[in-house]
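It is worth pausing here to work through a concrete case rather than discussing structure prediction in the abstract. The textbook approach is simple: state the sequence, then state the predicted structure, then interpret. We follow exactly that order.
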Amino acid sequence: MSNQILYFHYLYRLHYTFDSVTNICPKMADTPVRFGILGCANIARKMCRAITLSPNSVLYAIASRSLEKASSFVLENGFSPVEVKVYDSYEGVLEDPDVDAVYVPLPTSLHVRWAVLAAEKGKHVLLEKPAAPNLAELDRILEACECSGVQFMDATMWMHHPRTSEMRALLSDAQRFGQLKSIHSCFTYEADHNFLQNNIRVKPDLDSLGALGDIGWYCIQAILWAANYELPETVTAWRDPEFNEAGVILSCGACLHWKDGKVATFYCSFLTNLTMDLSALGTKGNLHIHDFAIPFQENVASYHAGSQFRIPMMSEHAVANDLPQEALMVSEFAGLVKRRNGDGLEPPEMWWPGISRKTQQVLDTVKASIERGFQPVEILS
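Step two, the predicted structure:
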């Protein structure tokens, strides 16, 4: 299926999801999706709030490796054991017949085990990024989800903000933007000493991709988004990436090339002051964002667009949102789950798994270029 067809298919799905109350099978319209969360990672705290704010979901269960930790997590996040079940094992959530979907914020090295098992148990899977350590493991996850007929989505939240849809319309407007020529993304933050010594994202047995997986995933997916998900022809990693003593990437960058002459660059780092920039340059216009991954304000996000005049003229556009982007993501995912559960016949939406797979392909190719001495590496479709 072509990228253009996929895009219009996606727009249709967006409309279907946002209008879920009237479009979902009547017996499902008033039934929220019941979420279980595997693990009590810090990001899970934000997702507890997102699930609660989402109009079509409810937090149903929390699992940890100890009942005490799971119970404390529930209370610390404003719930009671009456509202939310607690389990002392991830299997407990997956065996619960009342859990519809699971959010998995576990270390990347554990994704394939628990996401595959969740799919086999009939649970829809919202998986924290990076989705997998490599494409082979992600393909195992996606295959399990497809075979079990459950929905898959990675938890890249900014993709679900209304600003993203508005910017997509700009990039697709030939009169205003013209032909896309180059894309540049940058996501960095300065990690403290404790992070660099103890965080799971710097441990090779937990998150071996380091900064490339944690924030490089955002950069790569943003580039693909701007390019309408057309994969580049080659990827060349920049020289002199930084590693910790265990060999985990702390900073790196790469250049991407397309057959039609488009070019993109990205840089990600745990060692540089906070930056979340994305720029897309066209023949007639341009687009600039300074907080593409996490908007500086929760209820409004801005971007700057340039005109086609010779003298640069930038205009700021603010896009309001009723819910924070993580709640919008949960709402969209839950809408897809409700459609699947509504009549039992609707197949899982393949748009989001396709985006995750392409992101993982590029990420793997960056890593391959680093390992091959920063040589250009071809991406195989």
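Step three, interpretation. Residues 1-28 have pLDDT under 50 and may be disordered. The longest strand covers residues 271-282.
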